[in-house]
User: What shape does this take?
Amino acid sequence: MKNRRLSLTGQNGFTVLEIMIAVMIFSVVISALFSSFRAFITTSDKIRSDLTHNEKIRSVLKRIHQDLESVFVVQKPRYKKPGFNTDPDPYRFVGKEEKQGDRTLSSITFASLAHAALGAEPRPGVARIGYYVKENKNQTYDLYRADSLFPFPEEVENCTDPVLCRDILGFEAVYLDSEGEEHKDWDSEAKEFDYASPSGIRLKIILDSEKGEQEYQTFVSLAAQRGPLE
Assistant: This one.
């Protein structure tokens, strides 16, 4: 009988305390592995999302770059200074700044040969293209692109304009004149700018990220330019 008790309670078996400690250690290890796995999955999803967003922003900047590279400008002597009560140049280049919420955002309107035909309108031609931003319900901003063939509508913005990018924090444009000086706005029909078009444009799109605001920039040198009028 003594030998049987030793076999049941001696070194050949496990006590309840030992089993509880083993279960506790196993639970801690499994919990740590699960947390590491979940963190890895979350990080992978975030990296994948960032890569997708980055690629989309690059595509948007590429589209804007393409439109501006094909800008259409009426040259002198065909172009005449605007007179009293005359219609403005339909191909004018206009850059504006507008306050929306706590941000100052840019909009650009210009004529370009890079018309993007939609639906049953495959015909080419000079189009009036506009890029503008509107605040959305998330208190961020959506970037729109307008594209209309001549004769141009009175308003640049249209409720059917496609959204190129959602939930951005900013869209900024800086215009360079023939002397390389920077301007926050532009109007090729204004005496202030000598009735000229800009020589280049610096663009910036701002996104939100875990590391703070992330900026994407590009610079476009305009191939078609109208110099200052004497």
Summary: Confidence is low (pLDDT under 50) at residues 1-9. The beta strands are 94-100, 103-112, 127-135, 141-149, 163-168, 170-176, 182-183, 186-187, 200-209, 212-221. Residues 119 and 160 are 13 Å apart (CA to CA).
